[in-house]
Amino acid sequence: RGHNPDFINVIRNGLAWEPGGDTASPCRILLTDRTNPLLPIAPELLSPYFRERHVERSLAGTRYRMHLFPDIGFWQFHDLEEDRAIQFSQTPAGFPAWEPGSPLRNFLSWHFSRSGRRLIHAGTLGESGVGILLAGSGGSGKSGTVLSGLCGGLESVGDDYVLASSDDVIRAYPLFSAIKQDPAGLKRVGLEEAPAASGPLNWQGKHLIPLAELHKPQMRKSIEIRAMCLPKITGGDR
User: Fold this and answer.
1) pLDDT 10s digit of each residue in the chain, 238 long?
2) Among 158, 84, 167, residue whose Cα is nearest residue 125
3) pTM
4) Of 95, 116, 156, 222, which residue is the least packed, with the fewest Cβ within 10 Å?
């Protein structure tokens, strides 16, 4: 729920599945900011320093999770027991620059952790429902490899963050609906003239391209993971 239609659209455009129906979840998230007349008092940070990992460790044994991006006064709180959450920003557009590519990422991570599933910072490629994870830090070539694979006829459930379970087998599921790539990467695979390639660049200098606009194999509902690969950019022609 929220009173900011622009951010609601960011969520709807960024998620790989539609809310409601058989996928409905008991999780509830309230999205608000200083312009909300029902919120006369905004949370403030008492200390000038916020130690993210320290806070994570302190809350690990409790029912609560918390994230703060102090540069822009962006707060997220989650009660795991009630599966209720609140997000506060200073302005309606005061969310982190990476949010459109992976909206509600922290909340999704906390929510799914209740059932033993985890978000993984990795891309995926597969064939006939079986595939690999592509792991590495930002700029290591994950998205470029996924995009090249899609253009070559392979499947994917995501290029940056995926949901993973490890019951009988390790399986990855889609969460977000777009792939990120810089202009040079689009040119390498012949997509520099794609409609989305004329859009704005994000904070990483990349286009945020809905997978549906690529007219390549659609994302699968899941991929069974058999291996993890670490891309390495070599600058080669092939």
Assistant:
1) 888 888 888 888 888 865 444 556 688 999 988 888 776 666 666 666 788 889 999 999 999 999 998 888 899 999 999 999 999 998 888 899 999 999 999 999 999 998 899 999 999 999 999 999 999 887 788 898 999 999 889 999 999 999 999 888 999 999 998 888 888 888 888 888 877 777 788 888 888 888 777 766 667 889 999 999 998 888 777 7
2) 158
3) 0.86
4) 116
